[in-house]
Amino acid sequence: MPEQQERDSTAVSPSDESGPGAAQDIPMQPSSTNLATAPSNEPQRIPRWLQHAERFLRVIVRIYIGLVVCLVPWFPPLWDANPLFAGSPTVENFITQGAVRGLVSGLGLLNLWLALRDVLQGPNDGPHS
């Protein structure tokens, strides 16, 4: 315990600091070192090729997901024998109904519509422009 008291008695409060590490009220003068690292108010521009690559990948992924989600409910070996649904007879009966299959297919069509919209949309017509 005496060591604990010694450490506590030698603690320096932030207001007592002085020296090279202490914060002072001197305004920072421009120099070659702090001008190079100063943050700019302009937002960074994303390169055009990267915008096109991102758009292309987004369209491809949406088409793929849309086709899978749209077609899988109507392919019985994948939909009816799915091990995720086979555990519960209630869930299995629910997902085999035509309305549920149609709802899932509708979500797939929504993904396909979003992909088509991205394809037809000009590069400067996006929400980020």
Protein model, in words:
The model has no long low-confidence stretch (mean pLDDT 79). It contains seven helices and no strands. Helix content is 58%, strand content 0%. The longest helix has 24 residues, at 48-71. It has a domain at 48-120. It is elongated. It is an all-alpha fold.
How many extended strands? 0
Number of helices: 7
Q: How much helicity do the residues have?
A: 55-70%
Q: Could you state the order of secondary-structure elements as H and E?
A: HHHHHHH
Strand content: under 5%
- Helix/strand/pairing category: mainly alpha
Main sheet: strands, sense, barrel: none
Q: Alpha-carbon distance between the termini? A: 65 Å
Work out the oligomeric state of the chains in this entry: single chain
Radius of gyration, whole Å: 31 Å
Low-confidence stretches: none
Q: Averaging pLDDT over every residue, what do you get?
A: 79
Per the principal axes of the C-alpha atoms, what is the gross shape? elongated
Supply database-style keywords:
single chain, 129 residues, mainly alpha
